[in-house]
Amino acid sequence: MLFITNTTIYSPTERIERGAVLTDGGRIVAVGPAERLACPPDAQVIDAEGLLLTPGFIELQFNGGFGHDFTDDPTSIWTVAAQLPQHGVTAFLPTIITAPLEKSAAGRRVLAEGRPTGQQHGATPLGLHIEGPFLNPEKKGAHNPNYLRLASLEAVQDWSPENGVRLVTLAPELPGALPVIEALSSRGVLVSSGHSAATYDQALAGFDAGIRYGTHLFNAMPTLLARDPGLVGALLTDDRPFVGLIADGIHTHPAMIKLVWQALGPRRLNLVTDAMSALGMPPGKHLLGDYEVFVDDTSCRLATGSLAGSILSMDQALRNLVAITGCALEEALQTMTTTAARALGLEQTRGQIAPGFVADLVLLSPDLHVRGTVVDGELVYTAE
Prior knowledge:
TIM Barrel
């Protein structure tokens, strides 16, 4: 049982000054003004005077970090999960990029086996994000073209949230893609357009088949043009899909981040990092799938100069969005909490500070740096 008091609560859509939250059994059981909530005598108490309390951040595109790449070594998922709370991440989708399908199968087995005995409690993997191999070779980015293939019903016959697959990125314009989109979406998998050269009409056909997400907007898709809106135009103007954005100022220029915010707002924009193994590591050579990536203080690039993942963290993405757009914190928080949960169909249990919800919480300083993180009602990270 955990009692957090004397904090400013962002639910995130509502704010409670000098609020308190009580958790028990991994769930939130009470929320309100501190003077109205009694603290049980056996509860662990956190006096959060001067801090902000928000829902835990939910990360939908994360390739690895802290020296580990999930595609290269799916067994590292739990090791990395233990490190993510320092950035406010309490739940995430380990992302397996284009590789032999055995790699994603291995990742699913790792999740099914659960957190190893003795492994530090960290962020909760909610299932895999499988990004490839059903991608357009014209927009492959940092994906190995040797493993790209057309989508087929046979290849995805056992992909479902129950079997460890939450999100699949594919190119909807390729032969065979639409039946696969329909099959996956009917099972509750979030299907995304990405690494795609789809025209506007092809993108809409994908939405009609069940696509409800766009992977790292602007990146690995055709440029938005006045007479050829393409996939970007479809994602920005059709109300059906959620849209993932890497708000690092490198993958997406600050002016474009402002434009996207004005077009989508907090209910459809989902901040992601697309972070890779170099997150939390010094500059140098690091791994993304099969490729060596050269990392400096701000970006990750292949030898060709192409961007390859990021070293962005979720808390930095939050600070960036607020600084670039001038939006209210309540709105910015939705992009990585309630909106992420709705995209995954988990809005009844995750992404809000409310009774009955999973007790995933973040304590932030007024300048939006992580000071503490709670996962399933357990304080798993405290800043030094």
